[in-house]
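Quick one, T. Sequence first:
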Amino acid sequence: MSKNVNYYKYICLAKWLYPWGLGGFFFTMLLNERHTRRERLLKVAEAMATSARTAPKGKGFDIIEILIITDEHIAELSAAMLRYSEKSGLKFFIRDAGNLQHAEAVVLIGTKIQTHGLNCGYCGFPTCDEKNGHPEIPCSLNSVDVGIAIGSACATAADMRVDSRVMFSAGRAAQELGWMPECSNIYAIPISCSSKNPFFDRK
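Structure tokens:
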């Protein structure tokens, strides 16, 4: 009986030390992939955030904001998508809200609005000064920065063989919730690790 108790103690110690990479020094154990899925996906989400942060940006302005959400915040975002669908009449928000509930984590990427002084006219105004008279309208380069950051984050997810999908709908609902103050052009990237990509069950 005492041997079994000691054996159990070693297992508990190894499990406690494993996240710090120390478990192997004390005990060799069997790890079921299903039991470590959440922890691995959170690490992928963090790597995606790093990729988005280091992605090229117009004139090097670091105005991208990144947020990772899990658990009850995913449920809250899904509920916000349903409310937005009712308000806007956009039915695909309902479908996407259901898909989102299969995510273990969601990476949100948005940008603050800041002109670059290039007077490129891409936003529709001839100069940055004229555009600044309409602060609610993003600078076109801000939108490009978000797109590059999203592509970089999704590439990281793909490199790690994690399923993902870019969702305008979830990003728009996140903007309604005010989780990323002063940000616009928010997009969401839910991630999952399962036998097939749940975000492509487009019913």
